[in-house]
Structures are given as C-alpha cells and as structure tokens.
Amino acid sequence: xxxxxxxxxLLTYLIEKEVVQKDIDSIISDYEVLYQEVLDSGLTEKxxxxxxxxxxxxxxxxxxxxxxxxxxxxxFVGSNxxxxxxxxxx
Length: 90
Description:
Layout: H1 3-16, H2 21-40, H3 45-52, H4 55-62
Helix pairs in contact: 1-2, 1-4, 2-3
C-alpha cells in the first residue's frame, strides 16, 4: 500500500468517525512524517503499514485524545419503559 493510499484511507476513516478537522489535520500530518521515516529506515510499504497499524488500529490507539463533531451515542437510544407490576410475561 502506497503512502498516499494509506493516508487517504486513514483520512476517510477519521471523517467517518466524525473527528474534528483540526485533529484530522494533525493526525494526517503526523502519520505522513511517520510513514516516511519508517519507509526511509528500509522497510517495504507493506511492512510500514504493519508497523504503523491499520486505520482501525490507529483510531483505537488515539481515540481518547480526539474531539468529535458530535458525541458518540449508543445505538440503543430511547426511553426505558417500566413494566406494569402485574405483568405476567404474556
């Protein structure tokens, strides 16, 4: 995977996760430098991706330090109705 392709996939993933643009810019800039440094150390592009991690791995590693456009929500949203006390399971 080329550097351009790796960064493009990371960028797209961060946008999908609704990370604020300022954080995205910083991450892409950092990973552009990291990618080149690891590549310059003699690793192949495949080895670089393995060393830096997939887009999902990168996100999991840094997500606690990121800001999001909207707060992540639970998929189970809604009221929590109380069952009547005479409910007999039917």
